[in-house]
Every structure is written in structure tokens, then in C-alpha cells.
Amino acid sequence: MTLIVGGGSYLIERSEEDDDIELVLMTTNLLVEELADTLRYVGYLDSPEAIKEYVHMLFVLDTGFQLRYVNHTVQTLLGQESDVLLGASFSDLLTAESLSSWQLIARDLLYKDNYHGVHDLSFKVQGALTKRCTCAFSIVSIAEWPVSFILVTTFETSLNRLFIEDRIKALLASGDLRSRVKTNPPFKLSNEKDVRIIQSVRDRLLQNISQPLPGLRVLAHEFGTNEHKLKNGFKQLYGTSVYRFLTQERLKRARMLLQNTSLPVKEIAQMIGFKNMSHFSKAFKKQYGVTPMALRK
Amino acid sequence: MLMKETTYSKIWMADGILIFVYKPLPVLDFSTAKIVVNERLHYQQDVSYPVLCDLQGIKDADKAARDYLANEGSFLLKAVAMVDRRAIIEALLRVYIHRSKPLIPTQLFENQYEAMHFLKSYR
Known about the structure:
The complex is a heterodimer of chains A (297) and B (123). With 297 residues, chain A is of the alpha+beta class. Chain A has helices spanning 2-5, 20-46, 72-78, 82-85, 96-111, 161-174, 177-180, 192-207, 216-222, 227-238, 242-260, 265-272, 277-288, 292-296, and strands at residues 11-12, 51-61, 67-70, 116-125, 129-140, 149-159. In chain A, strands 1, 2, 3, 4, 5 and 6 form a 6-stranded antiparallel sheet that branches. In chain A, β2 (51-61) and β3 (67-70) form a beta hairpin. Chain B starts with a strand and ends with a helix. Chain B is globular. With 123 residues, chain B is α/β, with parallel strands linked by helices. In chain B, a hairpin with a 3-residue loop joins β1 (4-5) and β2 (9-14). Chain B is built from 4 helices and 8 strands, in the order ββββαββαβαβα. Chain B has one domain (4-120): Transcription Regulator spoIIAA, CATH 3.30.750.24. The chains are: A alpha+beta (297), B alpha/beta (123). Chain A binds chain B through residues 14, 16, 18, 20, 22-23, 26-27, 29-30, 33-34, 37, 96-97, 119-120, 122, 132, 203, 206-207, 252-253, 256-257, 259-263, and chain B through 26-27, 29-31, 37-39, 41-42, 44-46, 59-60, 62-63, 71-72, 75-76, 86-88, 91-92, 95, 99, 101, 103.
């Protein structure tokens, strides 16, 4: 039941076995992951700014990694009361798989000045479930305070409609609702077929990343839609224009090649589909804040 | 090229094919996947290869890692032949191919001989 109402937050803990039961557990986890993504996706269709990120769980640890404070979300999500949690070791909350990662993080927290890092860890949840979270770790030292402590926060993305109720309440309270209704509604793809077309365009772009982009009208026609739907639908689904998406993907590849190979910069630029060096360099600097040559060094 | 041991794998060349063997790893997550890809690119430098990828060390791979490997994980690769006999991995690969949509030809084999045979046409 927890899996179903969790909305994709929880996964079933896996074992080393390779039997039919394990296969069913794995398939269930795969379904949960897809469901979580679909929920986010549906939320995105509802509104142009559907995804919100917010701090979810908050832990305060002492420098011995014992829990000294947990917020209410920790208790509800992990299914433990605070008197059970406080005084326990942070490692007691983690699955066996995450312990070696935690050991490395703990070492860095102790030995690196002003450490701040972000890592994925899995927490144990009541009922042999696990919850995988992206955790931010910081060591906090304040001059006037005699002791340092460690702040651990997890954050979660959520559907905008969970926040819409608060927004509507605030608007109602301010009496402003009527004036806002008159603004133009944002573009929305109206059916599943159009959504699939846009997804196919994205897949095609990724598969042919270094090829020149055909005009949007030609591309739209090839996929059975029109330029208006392609342009606005792509923006609605992926939050960016077709052209910007292509540039971002090309630059992502360029960055990986620059950092991990010794291919000449000019060759990388050509490989990924930039026509000239100065265009590549400018776009790269705009995206990453440094020129390709500077990154190389 | 000699065998290279990286954080999460062992890599070497055989017959113009890159051999990539994962070390035991409970969960392949997004941050691990990034390191895996970066270390592989470091090894390859400029050249694109078909790759034989032994998955026997992997127990699970989360969606973020799968999506990353399907896209960025395909850089400088011509095709990938995964090797594993487990039913759970077969299920995982099917979801990987249909949902993460890897950019390069991807197939699962039960042994390295069939995998190498598949990859030879991509050299």
C-alpha cells in the first residue's frame, strides 16, 4: 500500500537472489520509477512551470554523526518516531548498499574544510522498503558557537498542482483573482498524439545531434504536425526551444569530450556539429561560463 | 592497450573491441554512471569502439542512471553488447531499450562469444 500511495517515492528493497520473486520485485520497482516519471510528466502538461523543488527531510548531526535533530518529514517518511531517531547514528538509517558511500562522505565531512557535497543515498523505510534521496551535506561552523554540526537536507520535486491550492488561497485572500483570469492562457498540447510527435522529434534530434538542424517547418511536416505546435509544444514539454535544446545537448557532449579526451578543440567542435570555432567558443562560454580552451587547462 | 582498472570497472581492448567489466556494485545510480562514462572516455581518448559490457557485477540500475547511459553514455561508442545470464537483468535491459532509448545498437547476450560475434560487424 505504501508503494501505491507513495507516488513513486519508495522502492522495494532488493536482494542478491536471481529467482522469480526477485524478478517480480524488480519489475515492480521499474513500474514505480516509470509511474513517478509519468506523474511528473502529467503535471508538466498541466502547467508551464509544473516542477517545484523544495527541501524535504532535514537532519542535524553532531561531528560523531549522531542524529541531534530531525524534522517532521523525516519521521513521516521513514516511519520512525523522533525519540527512536535521536541519538541514533546516521548510518543506522541507511541501507547496506549506501554504507560505503556514506563512509566516504563522512570522511570528507571531517577532513575537508567547509565541505559541501550532494550525493544519492538510500534510506531504510519501515516495511522493508527503501527511499532513494538526493542529499546535500554541509558542515556548519559558526565562530561564536563552540561546536560544529552537520546539516543534511534532501530535496524533492513535486507537481505544481500541489502548490496551486496555496497560490489560489493567497490570491483569494488578496482579492486579486478576477484580474488574473484575463491573461492569455499558455499554450497546451491538447492530445496524446501531439505529445508523442514532440517526443519523437526529441529522439530524432538526439540520434542526429551533429547534423544541421532542418528548418522547423520541414521537421514539423516530416513528423506530421505544424510548425506552431512543434515550436510551442516542444517548449511546453521540455522547457526550452528546439534550437536551444540542440545546442545544449551538443555542448554537453563537447564538455565531456573536452574533459575526458585529448581531441583537439577544433575537432570536437566539428564532431558535434558547430560550423565554426568562434560560434562554438561563444556558445560554450555562455553555457558554462568558461571558454573551451580554458576548460581544457 | 593494457587493462585499466577504474573506480567501478576493468577495461581493456580485444580484437578492436572495448571490453568493459563492471566491478561488484549494488546500485548503479546517476552519479556513478557519470564517473563510469568519464573514466571510459579517458581510456578511449579519441577513438570510437564497439563495446562488450559485462553486467554481472551489477544488481540494479536506477532510472536516472539508465537515462544518462542511454544518451551521454553512448558517446564514442558504436554499439554495445551486454553480457549477463540473469532474468532480472533481461527485464532491466528490456525497459532500458524501450524506455531509455539508447542512441546506439544495444543487445543482451548470455555469453561473451555471441556478444563478440555481434560486435565484430561494428568495428
